[in-house]
Amino acid sequence: MAPVTNQRRFGFAQYWPWLGAWLLLGFRFAGFGSELEEARRLLIAGQYKECAHQAEKAVVARPEDEAWQLLLSQALLATGEYREARSAMTNALARDPKSLALRWQARAVFQSNGDTEAANQMVEEIIQRGTGRAWMYRDDAASLVAIGQALLLRGIDPKSVLDAVFANARKVDPKLRELYLASGQLALDKHDFALAAKKFEEGLKQLPDEPDLQCGLAQAYAPSAPATMLGALDSALEKNSNHVGCLLLMVDHSIDAEDYGEAEDQLERIKVINPWQPQAWAYRAVLAHLKNQAPAEESARANALKFWPDNPEVDHLIGKKLSQNYRFAEGASHQRQALSYDPDYLPAKAQLAEDLLRLGQEPEGWKLAQEVQKKDGYDVQAYNLVSLHEKMNGFATLTNSDFLLRMTRHEAAVYGQQVLQVLRQARSNLCAKYGIELQRPTIVEVFADQKDFAVRTFGMPGNPGYLGVCFGRVVTANSPASQAGHPVNWQAVLWHEFCHVVTLQLTANKMPRWLSEGISVYEEIQANPSWGQSMNPQYREMVLGDELTPLSELSAAFLSPRSDLHLQFAYFEASLVVEFLVQRFGLESLKAVLRDLGQGVGIHQALEKHTAAMAELDEDFEAFARERANKLAPGLDFEKPAFARQEPGRVKGRGQERPLPLGPAPVSGGGESWDAWAKEHPTNFWALALRGQELAEEKKWAEAKPVLQRLLELYPSLAGPDSAYRLLAAAHRGLGESNAEKQVLTRFAALDKEAANTYLRLMELKAAAQEWPEVLQNAQRYLAVNPLMAPPYRYLAQASEVAGDLPSASLAYRALLELDPSDPAEAHFHLARILHRLSDPAARRQVLQALEEAPRYLAALQLLLEIERGSPQTRLNPAGATAQASP
């Protein structure tokens, strides 16, 4: 609920005596009469006009009854009869000057009519009466809730209100719906979604049939659990199919899914219930903007402001929704408009702060975040942002003409230059390919702590599945330090995100998510065949089953995926669509679609203009995807026995299930067994994979080898953490077949972008054979996964030195020294030797540091003498021969 304007802010100490007194009081409960209960049930069921009709008759008969007055105004507001609600409320206030609950309701009525002065006066009267005559309201739960809500508008500590006011209202009447609605809304307003869910769930235990509480619960779960949100909405709408709050949340959800038709259908339902609902008209303005319909957008916004012309919530909602659709500049403009109506409207100020940070306008963005946090210390999101800003003040900043890179100082010293190099390569490649010249540097921020990444990106901790996010000009990314348990190729991530920079700026952020993600994954593969996503048995099963989403509906696949697998499949399918479009219609057609999107043309219209009709695209893409799936390892049989079927890509083994491609050993089930199945299906993928893994686990290497070789002969592109290549290499190693192990690992390393252990093993084998180009290649592969480990830098330095690339060898040794190597004297010595050959005066400092670590290091002493004589070393010390410090 919007803060009240132009009111003084009081300190908590002024109210403490009576707040504390309420903690000690006991209360009694009062119920409704049966007639009133029937009318209230009509309101809860969404029969607003019937409720208003009964309430009008009751008010005439019993004008002194506050409950009927409240019910009448609520029913009139629900149907958009704002003028009538004001008239009824004015009469009610004249009859009942003592009621605080009535005054709180009057505030909503006056606000709905644009009379903020009268609304403010109601809050003032609640504060004065509630604090001056607390004894009058101690047994009135509704009045206690009204007092608590008024105090919150005055800036009183929310926890004190919860503990000293709302808690006592609960003692008086544990079934008062307004209590739980107020408590839950307080938590929602402060972005404390876990507390909000708790409060609404507490209310539902007391009032399981209250759709308002179900709607609140849906709002609490909306940011983190869309499926739970939809379940709560279904429950609420079963009880009240006219619940506008729920319908608005469904509109919001449909817009996120880019299902604009469904959103418009829901808005039409709302219009029948309340033709002047401000938020509904605000959403219509959003839809019109997204469709590039400026007159309709202006008209919808005007209707939203019809009864309250300076309502800051309207522009705040429009701007927030536009920003959620990556229209950050337009969103920021609406937040500024909201703040022009009410400079103290904190939701708009907080959203503007986030918009500006995502636009790269950081000084103003951080300043606004600090202002919000200072005025509202309980707002979780503002607190998180301000705390993060303080932490980021200690980051290192690396810059060139095209990028501004922020990282922790330690990580910047280790691999900051590697990051800039990857970004420069991506910029050179992708800007030329898509024909765009970026006007301003791109800001890239890399976070060693996933929570910091989430706060910078989403405002709140969580969302662990994201590796990086691009807002257009600003990119945020997790560093490898935050991915210790699940190593990821950070170079592929940055290439992916910079592709977003190109396409988002090319389209002015006016592109559907599926196309944006699809192009980025597609371009990963174009840059490096081991990057991106490829067809695998999981995806094959999903494509050939009923999991393929039509091209025309693909954005919805990203909104509420049933599992992490389904989300990854959405990325894969989107990239497959882009590949299909490029193969069928050419890259120039795709670029033409992007240009049209930038001009505000809808995605379906742009595709039909430059490719084919949507129905034809849906049909042809499905055929393309199925053909690709059927071409995966055509010599293998991918059928699963009925006794072992699980989710896509999974099979049942020893009473368990394991992910693709390998699972547990054969097990019988229902009279059938894997042994029997394998005999009848000798080329079955699952049978071969399971048999190979069983033998490998038992270290029966001689028996495992032919099974694994057969599997890889039929499926040579099999990559992934459980790939048969790993097991076959282990078999060769167990049998002492080093050359064969090296060959298998070499094939696997070329296929897999994240096989760090394989790269390390190859470095060991290749260095022993002095095959330095391969050592260099695998060191670089390893660093693309984890640049924070010492061994690859040592190999990289050795291989670079042998190749005569002394600058690269120097950088590798510097990075090694940042990682606290086990033998720092050796690293300092080798770096000094290289720098001396490069005539770099820093060589003297490095050799002295080596001697500081190991004073009797003979080779270092000799090098120091050479440096002092001014004669550079000319003898190349073989990289494999390491000079040792004397003990």
Rg, Å, rounded: 33 Å
Mean pLDDT: 88
User: How are strands sequenced across the largest beta sheet?
Assistant: 1-2-3-5-4
Report the CATH C-level class of the largest domain. Mainly Alpha
Oligomer: single chain
The fraction of residues in strands falls at: under 5%
3D architecture notes:
With 887 residues, the protein is mostly helical. It contains 45 helices and seven strands. The strands form two sheets. It has a five-stranded mixed beta sheet with strand order 1-2-3-5-4, with helices on both faces. The protein has a two-stranded antiparallel sheet with strand order 6-7. The longest helix has 26 residues, at 409-434. The protein is globular. 50% of the residues are buried. Mean pLDDT is 88; it is low at 1-32, 652-671 and 873-887.
Essential attributes:
887 residues, mainly alpha, Serine Threonine Protein Phosphatase 5, Tetratricopeptide repeat, Neutral Protease, domain 2, 5 domains, five-stranded mixed beta sheet, two-stranded antiparallel sheet, 45 helices, 65% helix, globular, disordered N terminus, disordered C terminus
Task: Provide a quick synopsis of the model.
This protein has 887 residues and is mainly α. Helix content is 65%, strand content 3%. The protein folds into five domains: 14-174, Tetratricopeptide repeat domain (Serine Threonine Protein Phosphatase 5, Tetratricopeptide repeat), CATH 1.25.40; 310-393, Tetratricopeptide repeat domain (Serine Threonine Protein Phosphatase 5, Tetratricopeptide repeat), CATH 1.25.40; 397-630, Neutral Protease, domain 2 (Orthogonal Bundle), CATH 1.10.390; 642-752, Serine Threonine Protein Phosphatase 5, Tetratricopeptide repeat (Alpha Horseshoe); 822-887, no CATH class.
